[in-house]
Amino acid sequence: MRIALIALASALAVSGCALKKKEGYAVADASNNPDLICERVSIPGKIYPGKICMTAEQWERHEKAGEDATGDAQRRALSTGDPRAG
Q1: Pseudo-torsion of CA 63, 65, 71, 77, nearest 10°?
Q2: What PROSITE patterns does the record point to (predicted)?
């Protein structure tokens, strides 16, 4: 049983090395691109924050999308009826 677990752990470790990077994503280096603005953001389930780099226009779109999503959620919450009303 112990050998099977070790073999399984080894197989998972080796398969993790073979994972490909997702299409459409690239590692950004702000030192080579002065237009990028980098921020450290918390990532759920991770101890250390991640780093996200985007242009000023992309940050504006990102913030607007967050504000829109928050506003939509608040409007939906206010439009529901009182659960205690019968």
Answers
A1: -130
A2: PROKAR_LIPOPROTEIN (PS51257)
